[in-house]
Amino acid sequence: MAISFEIPENVQQMTQATAFMAQTYMRPYSRQLDENEHERPKEFVEAMWPILRDQQKATLDKLTRPANGDGEKKKRSSAANLRLMLLVEQLAWGDAGVYLCLPSAGLGGFAIEAVGTTEQKLRFLSRFAEGDKPVWGAMAITEPGAGSDNSSMSTTAVFDEATNEWVLNGEKIFITSGKLALEESNGLVVVWATVNKAAGRAGIKSFIVEAGTPGVSIGKVEIKHGIRASDTASIVFNNARIPADNILGSAEVQATKEDKGFKGAMATFDASRPIVAASALGVGRASLEFVKEKLAKNGIEIPHNLPYHKLTAIQRDVLEMEAQWKAAYLLTLRSVAMMDEGIHNSLEASMAKLKAARACSWIAQKTVEILGQMGYSREWLAEKWMRDSRIAQIYEGTDQINTLIIARRILDYTRRELA
Questions:
Q1: Contact predicate 107/138, CB 8 Å
Q2: How many CB atoms are closer than 10 A to CB 330?
Q3: Among 35, 45, 152, 414, which is least packed, fewest CB within 10 Å?
């Protein structure tokens, strides 16, 4: 049976429209926004909000469709994750930092989609599907003393039976769009906290904290190496009270396969890691296209029909850059296609994220190397892409963590057997 890698026509049209946005509202402002960290890309936000709002509305409409005659909602083939992958790749090509300023549910939305009930999805995600004012969501996991090892998380959530509320205390750091999510009315942050420290990972749950909640404050806003247009903030919780039904999944502590607490929340990454891979692909493609353009202007073409020994060192480098990018692209394509078909993709999500992050960081660095002094100069964007590319190897699981996940999945080892 032949396998087609053709992108559906409606998705191609979306990609073309996104390319226009990237060329018009992102790339021309890349240097300005990089030099003026945290300056909000207002034109980009205003242009993207109606598009993303309508997409979220269409997603929520599917949740309310009537059941068919068998009492089950009709399952339809979807390309939603494919569309998202290609949209993110194109936007990151425009500017990775500006892309992260997208007014949307963000990683918080992934968590709600992965663990939330239908009622929670409709209640919390509807704010991203209505109104003229942009809204942001975020997810808060990392702490000063808990990075990749989530079991050492110290932020606590204690249930107050008298008021039927959860009381959160602690601090979260390195939260993408954390400031945007809490500054703007109607925003939200999904916060991971422990309800029982002795239970380890089984005691970790996720909670929806809405903007304006008393006891929640924005701490340090980071000054970063790359993706400087986006805000990365810390959030402090000081006896922050949230309603009892703002918990995602069951409040019961149980280390079973059916538990939708920590294990359910971890499913967030199966959806988000391919999207991080897509953003890395966008930066990698920007670098690759730029270096080929500059080489062509200097009379250096990249032939694809000559034996390896007849190529110059630079030609060989560029061909290897193309091959690495394509391999990462195909892995990412596979991981999102599995999501669209409802197939578990934990292994493939980590493979795509790891490969894309490493390959595109190397591509961006190689671009600077090939271009020499001008590649290192701030006159061109090549050095910025090299800085922007590094984040893909850090957030949504470092390279080391994703390597561990891949090894455990392939070898069928537990965390205790392979740490």
A1: yes
A2: 13
A3: 414
What's the pLDDT tens digit per position in 227-279? 999 999 999 999 999 999 999 988 887 655 545 556 666 778 899 999 999 99
Let me know if residue 99 belongs to a domain.
Answer: yes
Q: Token digits for 122?
A: 């409709």
Number of structural domains, the chain? 3
Ordered DSSP codes for 234-260:
EEEEEEEEEEGGGEES-SS---STT--
Active site residues: 396
Residue 1 maps to a domain: no
Q: Which residues contact 14 (CB under 8 A, 6 or more apart)?
A: 83, 86, 87
186 is a domain residue:
yes
Whole-model pTM: value is: 0.92
pLDDT in tens, 78-108: 788 999 999 999 999 999 999 999 999 999 9
Q: Which domain holds residue 48?
A: 9-68+76-128
CA distances (Å), origin 8, targets 4, 217, 367 = 10, 45, 32
Pairing assessment for the beta strands 204-210 and 247-248 based on DSSP bridges: antiparallel
Q: Are residues 188 and 217 in the same domain?
A: yes
Distance CA 172, CA 293 (A): 43
Nearest 5°: the CA angle 114, 357, 341 is 35
